[in-house]
Structure formats: structure tokens, C-alpha cells
Design goal:
The structure is a homodimer of 338-residue chains. The first copy, chain A, is of the alpha/beta class and 338 residues long. Chain A has eleven helices and eleven strands. In chain A, strand 7, helix 10 and strand 8 form a beta-alpha-beta unit. Chain B binds a DNA duplex (16 and 16 nucleotides) through helix 2 and helix 4.
Chain lengths: 338, 338
Amino acid sequence: MNRRPKIKDIATALGVSPATVSRALSDSALVTAETRARIRETAEALNYRPNVSARNLRTARSMAVLMVVRDVGNPFYLDILKSVEATARAAGYSVLMGNTENDPEREIEYFDMLRDGHADGMILMTGKLPQEDGAHHKLPPGAPIVIALETIEDSGFPHVQIDNVAASQAAVEHLIALGHRRIAHITGPVPEIMSADRREGYRQAMRAAGLCVPEGYEPHGNYLLHSGAAACKALFALAEPPTAIFVANDEMAFGAIHQLRNMGRDVPGDVSVVGFDDLYLSEAFYPPLTTVHQPRIDIGRQAMTILLKILSGGQAPEAPVVLPATLRVRGTTAPPKS
Amino acid sequence: MNRRPKIKDIATALGVSPATVSRALSDSALVTAETRARIRETAEALNYRPNVSARNLRTARSMAVLMVVRDVGNPFYLDILKSVEATARAAGYSVLMGNTENDPEREIEYFDMLRDGHADGMILMTGKLPQEDGAHHKLPPGAPIVIALETIEDSGFPHVQIDNVAASQAAVEHLIALGHRRIAHITGPVPEIMSADRREGYRQAMRAAGLCVPEGYEPHGNYLLHSGAAACKALFALAEPPTAIFVANDEMAFGAIHQLRNMGRDVPGDVSVVGFDDLYLSEAFYPPLTTVHQPRIDIGRQAMTILLKILSGGQAPEAPVVLPATLRVRGTTAPPKS
DNA sequence: CTGAAAGCGCTAACAG
DNA sequence: CTGTTAGCGCTTTCAG
């Protein structure tokens, strides 16, 4: 025989009770240092490992958190995954991966996993709650959920995010300061808050500088490479094309730059481009991309920290935690030609 | 009162036994379609969700798999994460994220999670097993583990990978066919098998073409951007610098290209560069990177498929599954200057 | 400080 | 086809 040892095996081997073993193994103060040592020793010798399912059932916790994003394939999330994972593991939690692909069915599934006991809490980065009509997926108000990156208005959950309006405004101000007047903006999928915020920042900066936003200067994209190229193409089909473009994310910015190159336009010689996000390799690009840096590592860490606090019975911050985003001026912006 | 409903609540509400409810909910054939319907209905009405911890304890499975990589922050893994997740979820498994950072402690921890019952199986992409000396972490030979991406010799576990030697050889042959003779290779951390294999492919191609590998033509890197730049710099400090470089991964290739640009050398005009991996945005770079494409989506899918097979009692393939890698010729390679 | 006993919620024999 | 029963391995009262 060679089954997995259980607590009882250690107990009988040592002539103590299972309860004592359990206590010793979980560092309870209710056990002599000496017995604890003995127990630990034989546990080690027997190569004992606690059965997590049993423990989870008994304690009604899973010691896991769920991290839900729209697309795990998007490099944008990397740093966040990483810092969430690091913070979680440091607190003894494991991390389950959630990927919705913007599919409402899946969004619901992950909320269900929370109720199932698959995970004790969740970091939600999809900017959406399951549809509110179906009473089924109504969430307890104090559910251990932290919204990160995106905003879900009136959700009542803690938020960790950047100020997209202000950051966008700063980006556009940079272009204005360089002397640009005809500045366009390639938006994200714009009914969504984050995209709307970035556009709002663009508009505010333009307005503040007394610049107008001509018809067609706000083409829509979907945050993917190709849509950046397409929007850029549309922009240069205009009678008066822009001399600078503020693009709602880096990926579309790369698409736009690619398109500009294909049209024989130099960046930043002919056209300046500013992105948003500061992806992993944005600096390694040629020319290195001028972009708004999101403090993704901090976002992940803070979100997880708040979640841990909630999970340990603490109080989450009432107000959204707003982290600073900073413009990184690199090689894709320059004064306009003349 | 408003506790979470359990199976017993449904049972009493309907005047049936818990067993019947359990069966109905798990689609057992041992229950009338009609009772099943009734049970499902009230389960729905009561907003019932099974408690996974209880189920896991009882069934001795967690319906989760562990996906372990060296660095979740590396964009290289994205497609794999994604396809593993998709394949797993389709089979009803959730995915736990493992990140070792090459730390032996952590490598062990994830193996322990397998024994703990945190997960039923594991996809290991670190190229390492926990040190074999400590008998503690000896693995049962038939453990539900699939090695992907990297090779662990004599481990006895199923592998899903590409032929790094052949792929590298093809990359170098492309350079040779363009007319290059002085071809260098920036390696990965070379005691490791994957890096050694890529170097081996380089050497074989050179030898087959009757070309020699001069002293200093194989500088070492560590797969990171900066090391590519450094290695490149070393290469061009040589008396006879190369006209082409085969770099062991894309990230270092970007570093190398950056360095070449800084030294005033045009790519591909003065120097050709070939990478390896075909990262997310390698095509969007300027110039678009010529590189070896790894079928990462397939690697993830196949690895997970094999794992699922093992988990359902099936037989894993004896021989390594070798997927085709293909050279993508793009804009960083051209004939040598004269 | 330690032991005895109960039970978390579910599923799987085994009987009917 | 359905019900009864037992128990997965652990933690945690409650007694001592």
C-alpha cells in the first residue's frame, strides 16, 4: 500500500489526535513548540501534503482569485497579470485565468465561478457587469470584486484606474505645444467609457487651445492594429488631413504608422503620432513611440491589494484609486513641417 | 434566512432524495427526463449552484489545470495561454496561472500544487523539472504532466514542441541563399536545450554550406532586448563583422536592430537580421521582421488536448509531438551589399 | 495545551 | 429509475 498520507496517518504514527496535527500544521498557538516540531518532522518524513479540497470545503474558502480580462492574448494585460499574480501568491492565493472575449455568456460564467466557490474574489478588467435584467446574476453589494483598468459606473465596487481624460488631454497638449493645429484622434470602440474618456480628453485639449475638430477627425477604431491603419487611411482621404494624430492605443498607433509609411509619409517628419498604453515593445519600435504610459504593474498590485483587504474582512476605499499616467515623449512626435 | 441553497434544499422542496438531485444535475442517465426537468427548474428557481469544494473533495478532482511558464510577463506566451485556456474551458477545466521566474523554489511549489489537488494536471513550459536529488519531489512516472515548448530529456512525459534545430537551419539557409557568407548567431542562454538546439541548427547550416564560424560569431544573450543589443555591439567590434545575423529570438533581434541603427547601419541594407518566434507585433515593426514562426496556438491546443486525454484515462503519445515552424520572410533580410 | 466528535456539501455504492 | 447510507479529509467547537 502507498496511498497519500492524510492527517490521521500522522496522528496515529505519533499517537496524537488529528486535531493536534491540524493545529500544528497551521501554526496554531494552541500547541507546544515541541509537539509542533515532532509533527512537522513526521509530516515531512511522510511527505504529507494537505488536501486542498477538504480544507476548502471545511473553511469555505478556495484561496484563489479570478482575474478576468477581455482577451488574454492582448499584450496589454501582461504586466497586470504579472503583478496580480505576484501579489496574490505572496498572500497565499492562486490565480485563475478568466478570458471573456467580450462574450456575455462567458462574463456570466466567471461570476458564477465566484458563487461556486471556485474563487474567493475577482479582479474584473472587462468594464462590464453581467446584464442586470436577469435577476439571476445579481451580485451581493459587498461582493469581493475589484474593478481595474476600466470603469463601471454606479457598480459600487472599488476601482483602480488612471484618469483617462487627463492623460489624453496631456498627450494632445504635447502635440499642440509642438505647434500642431490639425490634430486628429483615432478612437476606441466609443460607446465604452474608456474610449469615450480618451476622446473627451482630446476634445478638451482642443477646445482649451481654441482648436476645432473638423468633420472626420475622429474616426473610430476597435483597438486592433488593422483598425488603426484603416482609420488613418480615412483621415488622409480628407481634404485637409491632419499633421498629427492622437491614437487611443499603441496597437492602433502602430497600424496607423504602418499605413502612413505605405502612403509615403514620414513619421514624425510629415505626421506626428501619439499612442496610449506604452506596450512592452513600444520603445523598441522604430521610431520609438511617443505614448501615454499606464502604470500597469501598479494597477495590478493595487487592485490585488484591495481585493486581499476585502477578503480579510477589511474595508475597501470608497473613492476610486486613480494612479498617475505619464506621457513618454519619444520618437514619433515632432513639430509640424512648416 | 437566505443561505446558499444546497442540494438538500432542492431535494426537500421537491420531495425527492439528494441523490436524485445530484444525478439530475449531472445529467445522469439514471433519472427520468421529467424529474430531471423538474429538478433543474427548481434548481434554477432557487438560484442553486453546486459547491465546487464539496464536489472536488468527493470526486477527488479539481477540474483545474496548471499552466506553468518562466515569465507570464513575456508576450511570447500569449497565444499559448490563450489556446490552452480555450481548450481547457471547452472541456470544463479552469486554468491556474503558474509563473516561476526561473526560481527553483517556485518550480517546486507548482509541482506541490499538483499533489495538493489544486489542479489535476499541468502544462509545463519551463524546460525544467524540480531538482531530482531531493526525493521529496519525485514524480509518479505517469503524472498528468505535458511538457510544451521546451524539451526535458528523459523525463518520460509527453512533449509538444517544434524542431528548433531544423527551423534554425532553415533560417540560416535563407541567409545563405541570399548570398551571405559572414553570418553570425546571437544565442540564448546556451546551456539550455532550446538555445543549444537553435545554435546547433545554425552550425549545421553553416557547415553544410562550407562556411566557417569565426571566433566571436556566436555571442551569448539571454532572450531579452538589451542582451540582443549588447551582443550585436560585440559583433561589430570584431575585425570582420558579419553581414547577417541570425538571432535566437525576436526580442533580442529588436535589440540588435536598434543597436545597428544606432551605429548607423541600415537593416537590411547593410546587415540582414532574422529572428525567432514571430511575436505579436513583429510584423508591424519597421522593417517588418523576418523570423521563424512558431505555431504557438497549435502548441497550446495540442498540449492541452494531450493533457485532457491523460486526465480522462487515455494514453499519451510516446513520441514527442513535433509541430512545423515556418520561416516568414519579411523586411529585415536582403542580399549582402556587394 | 490536547482529544473527541461533528460536519462542511457533495457523490457513489448498494439496495430496492 | 429512486432512496439510503456512508464518507471524501479536513478544521473547529466543546470538553477536559
